[in-house]
Amino acid sequence: MLKLCSCNVTDQVQASVQCRFPGSPGPFAFRRRAPVSVSFSPPSRLGLTPVQAVVSTQKTEVAEVVKSGSGSLADRLRLSSLAEDGLSYKEKYIVRCYEVGINKTATIETLANLLQEVGSNHAQSVGFSTDGFATTPTMRKLHLIWVTARMHIEIYKYPAWSDVVEIETWCQSEGRIGTRRDWILKDAATGELIGRATGKWVMMNHDTRRLQKVSDEVREELLVHFPQEPRLAFPEKDNRSLKKILKLEDPAEYSRLALTPRRADLDMNHHVNYVTYIGWVLESMPQEIIDTHELASITLDYRRECLQDDVVDSLTSTEPTDGAETVSELNRTNGSAVVKQDDADCPMFLHLLRVSCDGQEINRGRTEWRKKPAR
Question: What is the pTM of this model?
């Protein structure tokens, strides 16, 4: 995968400013800018220590970038672009050292957070709200927000520290009650498909916390950003993203009880962020699977909000199999990969998150695992 070479701050800023990304006209379109030119004086002449000189230089360079054109500094430094038709959005991300886990690769929570980030940036790039809620003008007027109903993520190869991942995303209608977002993850250096994901969002009234159908007025605001023809990250028939998840009944084989949300787990809607549920699901996985396998796919159905005062139980059991599954050939329009199922090497589990005190169902899930690759 693409590795970042060592270079000084001036080179990085100049490279970012000189990049031109294709996009639709408007405040988020990128325009070629002249390189930032910064003059340097020896630290001794300025009366600065070497460390003070570096900090001073960095501040000067950032100030020059801010003055070099319109738009926020973040907009101009992102490695991102809208497609020529304005209907999909791509962004590149570097895997940081604090985003990898015990396998020395990015964790599933890291990748889920990146999906959330690129989705939010896409919404802002087409002019939706800049508060992170991706709401249209009508939605804000009516106090409506989006909440996650379902997420399905498949990872074929986990990126490692300092690898660069390119994520493409787009949205489309999902019936009368919600919208769908899809993602394709690739190795930015080779173009290799390393993952796919899809999610469904439904509309909720922020004040009453009740679900609401997408009105015609809101739909009209959204449709201009949706492909006219359906484009699916999982186009193959009977794909696993559509598979129904049965409720896990007690007694479960494995459990982790009394999980408590931290303040850092709350999102801007003041309920637990959907990525936190992934971590809670994995908390009740048997250790022998964690030691020998890596997560191949995860599907989560969200049943109710989880608030800061809720105490949560995580339950896990092996999913009964109904015969061997076949090799699935992925549609080559979005990438290509072959996923082979073997019950011995690819165990599957059902999961349930519930409120400890009364057993209310918060989330049900399914995970599939594969043997860890030799390193």
Answer: 0.76
